[in-house]
Amino acid sequence: MPIPVTETCIINLRGPYDLKDSSTPEGKIWSSSIETLKKCPGFRDIYTSNVVEDKTKARMFINWDSVEDHFAFYETPHFPKFREDLVSLCEVPPFPIHTVFEPAQPKTLEAPITVVYMAYFPWAISDKEKKDWESTWNAFTEKIEPEGSKHGLLLTAGGWVNEEMENAKVKGKAAKGYMGTMGWKSLDAHLEFLKSKTYADAVKAHGDFEDMEMYHVKF
Q1: Residue 2 — pLDDT band, cuts 50, 70, 90?
Q2: I want to staple 98 with a disulfide (CB 3.0 to 4.6 A). Which of 29, 141, 162, 163 is the partner?
Q3: Alpha-carbon distance 204 to 134, whole Å?
Q4: Residue 163 gets which letter from DSSP?
Q5: How confident is the model at residue 131 (pLDDT cuts 50, 70, 90)?
Q6: What residues contact residue 129 under an 8 Å CB cut-off, 6+ apart?
Q7: Nearest Cα to Cα of residue 213 among 187, 175, 183
Q8: Which of 139, 182, 131, 183 is nearest to 160 (CA)?
């Protein structure tokens, strides 16, 4: 049975483009790329945004019926033009990864603001170490949810990335990624919560990762 998957296309732009302004050349390419994806078999929905902290970075989160449906897109007549146009916006070629979230294809992406946590581990991480981290992530979210929900936290979800990633802080640079997401009512609500004792206490038992990054996207 096909497993629903979320593709994240990691994009480093040539400049701080406003991709949602379709009156600009860059916005037109972005809009056209999205419309092409919507025609693909197995496509479910898409969420796109610049990274709030750095407008030269962007993300496409694309829900597919299965990873095979995404790969099948590469074999269609539409893909060469799609890739050529998208690459024209980029400093380096886009890097697609696939995450099987729990729960699948999370509603965190529908929130007014989504916080993305990416934890990096050695590529050869064991199954036991994976389960240990999943327990750590779940404990972290359970600790912050009661108080966080009073301040704008809506829901959380996380999952392992299928592909090998690269991170300079991981020995050998080959990394296994875990992507956690949180939906919030607003950016200010999350930033204010980061100053709270509840959050400070929760992050003390953060687990044994090699590196962690956090950023916001607004779809």
Answers
A1: confident
A2: 162
A3: 16
A4: S
A5: very high
A6: 121, 208
A7: 175
A8: 131
Distance CA 58, CA 40 (A): 22
Residue 185: pLDDT above 90? yes
DSSP 8-state symbol, 17: -
Give the whole-angstrom CA distance, residue 40 versus residue 151.
Answer: 39
Which long-range contacts does 28-35 make (Cβ < 8 Å, 24+ apart)?
29/85, 29/86, 29/88, 29/89, 30/89, 32/85, 33/82, 33/85, 33/86
Q: Are the CB atoms for 88 and 43 separated by under 8 Å?
A: no
- Concatenated DSSP letters for 107-159? GGGGSSEEEEEEEEEETT--HHHHHHHHHHHHHHHHHHHHHHTTTTEEEEEEE
Write the pLDDT tens digit of every residue in 39-97. 999 999 999 999 999 999 999 999 999 999 999 999 999 999 999 999 999 999 999 99
- Which stretches of the chain are assigned E, i.e. beta strand? 5-12, 43-51, 54-64, 95-102, 113-122, 153-161, 165-166, 174-184, 211-217
* Contacts (Cβ under 8 Å, ≥6 apart) of 215: 51, 52, 53, 54, 57, 115, 116
User: Closest Cα to residue 40, out of 9, 66, 3, 1?
Assistant: 66
For residue 107, the tally of other CB atoms under 10 A from its CB is 12
Lookup: tokens for 39 = 């025609």
**Which residue's entry shows tokens 């074999």?**
75
Contact of 108 with 185, CB cutoff 8 Å: no
